[in-house]
Amino acid sequence: MIGERADGWKWAQASGLSLGLHVALLGYLVYQPTLDFLRPDRVEALPQIEVTTLIPQIPEVVAVPAETLTSPADSGTDAETPTAPEDTLTTAPPDLVEAAPAEILPPADPTVGLTSPPADQVGSVAVAGDAGPMPVQASAEAPPPDPRLLILVDRIRSQLTDACLLALPIMRGEDELTLSLLSDSDRNAAALTDELVAGIEGDISRETLLLDPRQCPAVAFARRDARYPVFALGLQLDAQSVSSGDSLRGQISNGAGYVQTLLMVDENGAVHDLRRFLLSSAGATRFDIPVARMRQPRDTRQLLIALATPQRLNTVTARAGDAAGPFFDALFAEVGQNALIGIASFDVR
Question: Domain residues of the chain, as ranges?
Answer without folding.
Answer: 72-348
